[in-house]
Amino acid sequence: MNPTELPNGTSGDVLVFPDSPLVQATIDLVTSTESAAIANHSVRSWLFARLLARHRGVDLGRDLAPDLLFHACVLHDVGLTERGDRHQRFEVDGADVAAEFLTEAGMAAADVDAVWEAIALHSSGGIAHRRALLTELTHLGIGVDFGFGDHREFVTNAEGAEIHRAYPRLAMATALSDEIVAQARRRPEKAPAYSLAAGLVRERSTPPYTTGVEAAAAASRWGA
């Protein structure tokens, strides 16, 4: 599906994307390199981040460029692709891949750096929200897709259903845990002590082999 076109049966106010060739290129990158579960999660993170921005009175255009929030959210897990399977924690490898991709596409260096930070810190609770608005909204939008935060204040049941109808969950928390752990087992340097990856490897190494990420998602408003 072209991201600038709305699926049948939508309201026209929820499934909204910036309109540019680079948006399409970003969608093409994630859908061709990530599993469907992770790609859908990445797009939902953008949609939830956009709803949160609107709820907070953030003007996407005046206060924050919507395309930067889109790229930060949709590219935040490219560190889990073959292209992103390097030698740093997946968040940093993903930030590097995104920066390379956006630089090659002609994005300004300052904007690339802002997206890099948002992706590198996307799993860093307690830090991301102290940084730029882009970094904070990226972190929170991703969190909403896991069911974290006060999403009941700004995501109606109808909006949540619309988003999930277009981009089903497909057991995304398990898919994410699988990919992070598989990378870390191949390259132990990708799971430094106390990182998210190290924690997931530890949980997958002892019964019942279910990660906290999976448990939290399963217990959330959206389910696994």
UniProtKB/TrEMBL annotation:
It holds the Pfam family HD. It comes from the Bacteria. SUPFAM superfamilies: HD-domain/PDEase-like. Residues 39-127 form the HD domain. InterPro entries: HD_domain (IPR006674). This is HD domain-containing protein. It comes from Actinocrispum wychmicini.
